[in-house]
Specification:
- With about 140 residues, the protein is an alpha/beta fold.
- Helices cover about 20% and strands about 20% of the residues.
- It has three helices and five strands; from the N terminus they run ββαββαβα.
- A five-stranded mixed β-sheet has the order 1-5-2-4-3, with helices on one face.
- The longest helix is centred in the C-terminal third of the chain and has 17 residues.
- The model has no long low-confidence stretch (mean pLDDT about 80).
């Protein structure tokens, strides 16, 4: 039995062009919890649906909790994007270090399971002075 350890490179990309310089397998971006929904499918309502049907359909589309992530298929230059749910912009500060740690740990575990070898991340939790300071993130 051969034991082959895989390595995963995580680059912190401070530039505007996340992932364009190094062409990683996936990029990690930060998101507000109210912008990433955990619905199982498309919210499909039309005029014939009654109010109860609309309520039940909307109830299935809830924000993901802080510290979670959503993986989306993207395009060029990065085929995958991990949306790290680390902010709640309704509170101040909008982010806590524990949320970043939980989200990043889960993302790294998923990336290894998928056989990815490189990721590029923007500074998670740092957003326009509302979240963590850059030295807290690093």
């Amino acid at each position: 039995m051969v034991n082959r350890e895989r390595s995963l490179r995580l680059d912190l990309d401070l530039g505007e062009a996340l992932g364009r310089r190094l062409h990683p397998d996936a990029a990690i971006v930060q998101e507000d919890r109210n912008l990433v929904m955990a619905g199982a499918g498309v919210l499909d309502l039309d005029r014939e649906d009654d109010l109860d049907a609309a309520y039940l359909a909307i109830a299935e589309h809830r924000p993901l909790p802080l510290g979670r992530y959503l993986l989306r298929r993207h395009g060029e230059p990065t085929p995958w994007t991990y949306q790290a749910v680390v902010h709640d912009l309704e509170v101040r500060p909008s982010c806590r270090a524990g949320n970043v740690r939980r989200s990043l740990t889960a993302i790294l575990g998923d990336a290894v399971r998928r056989g990815m070898t490189s990721l590029s991340a923007e500074p998670l939790g740092v957003w326009r002075g509302r979240g963590l300071a850059l030295d807290e993130m690093v």
